[in-house]
Amino acid sequence: MKNQFQVRYANSPNETKGLTTEGLRKEFLIQKLMENDTINLVYTHFDRYIVGGAVPVNSDLKLTTIAPIKSDYFLERREIGIINVGESGSVTVDGKKYNLAYKEALYIGRGNKEVVFSSDNVDAPAKFYLNSTPAHKVLPSKKISQDEAEIVEMGSMETANARTIRKLIVNSVVETCQVQMGMTELKTGSVWNTMPAHVHDRRMEVYFYFEVPQDQAVCHFMGEPQETRHIWMANNEAVISPPWSIHSGSGTSNYTFIWGMAGENLDYGDMDHCKVTELK
User: Fold this and answer.
1) If we measure between CA atoms, which residue out of 266, 271, 215 comes closest to residue 241?
2) CA 41 to CA 32: how far, in whole Å?
3) Is 22 marked within a binding site?
4) Helix or strand holding residue 14 (H, E)
5) For residue 263, what are the contacts with CB-CB under 8 A and spacing of at least 6?
6) Which of this chain's residues are annotated to bind Zn(2+) (predicted)?
7) Closest alpha carbon to 129 in 46, 3, 39
8) Domains, the chain
9) What is the chain's pLDDT, residue by residue, as a tens digit (280 residues)?
């Protein structure tokens, strides 16, 4: 069993403008999240957000604290959202077991001392995608199925952005301090997500792309609306989106992605929209 982490520092719009392709990828792209028998974590200084993946195969995986948060246990001052993007498995929280099927979610509140990830079948392991934020109070843990999510249909086939949004870990479904997570599924024939684009200066965001077919890719767009940049991404990769940046993408096929947010408020609709014709 391995627990490993890396730290990413916050970047301003001015310094981001001067980054090369390699520099953009180094600062914002998160690769190799899903490795067998490993918990991989990335701690970003944008809102102290933690992104991670856990794939238990030959043994269970226990979530342990990491140096940057300087705590006795991982959730001492934090909360966490989890979505299973693999086969069936379970998360045991201080002795209570939560079974998670594909695309089911779990919110775990502050103060829980032990979190253990397990797969039901070693030949078809679960893959747990994790987002964690600082938390100011203790809230109850809760499992959320796909049917329990708040579901919104958006876009159209004419603009190649017909999609289903499932708000899984949001305050209309489960009370949280700060973390919000959901899943957007692009319909066959649609490739654009979050278009028209927007920014929300009061919250940062992380996208995790999955269900990207083999030999296909997603081009993720970021940057200020008048100074955009792009990062090509593969299946099971994540990308950090600063509060000042748009976060949009287009794939060579349809795909699914998980969005996670943290920041000053929990208002999903608090965003500043950018007209397609205004992007540069």
Assistant:
1) 271
2) 10
3) no
4) helix 13-17
5) 47, 178, 200, 202, 203, 204, 243
6) 198, 200, 205, 247
7) 39
8) 2-278 (2.60.120.10)
9) 688 999 999 999 999 999 999 999 999 999 999 999 999 999 999 999 999 999 999 999 999 999 999 999 999 999 999 999 999 999 999 999 999 999 999 999 999 999 999 999 999 999 999 999 999 999 999 999 999 999 999 999 999 999 999 999 999 999 999 999 999 999 999 999 999 999 998 999 999 999 999 999 999 999 999 999 999 999 999 999 999 999 999 999 999 999 999 998 888 878 888 999 999 9
Distance of alpha carbon 240 from the chain centroid: 9
Element (H, E) at 80: strand 78-84
136 is in an annotated binding site: no
- What predicted TM-score, i.e. pTM, was given to this entire model? 0.97
Contacts of 182 (CB under 8 A, 6+ apart): 149, 165, 166, 167, 168, 169, 170, 258, 259
- The number of beta carbons lying within 10 Å of the beta carbon of residue 243 is 17
Four-residue CA torsion sign, 235, 165, 102, 85: positive
Q: Closest Cα partner for 231 from 239, 220, 244?
A: 220
Q: Is 254 in contact with 155 (CB distance < 8 Å)? A: no
Asked if 225 contacts 277 with a C-beta cutoff of 8 angstroms, the reply is no
> CA 28 to CA 188: how far, in whole Å?
28
* Residues contacting 102, CB < 8 A, separation 6+: 84, 85, 86, 87, 88
Where b means 16+ CB within 10 Å and e means fewer, 27-54 reads bbbbeebbeeebbbbbbbebbbbbbbbb
Task: Let me know how long the chain is.
Answer: 280
One-letter amino acid for residue 157 of the chain:
M
Alpha-carbon distance of 25 to 42, in angstroms, equals 14
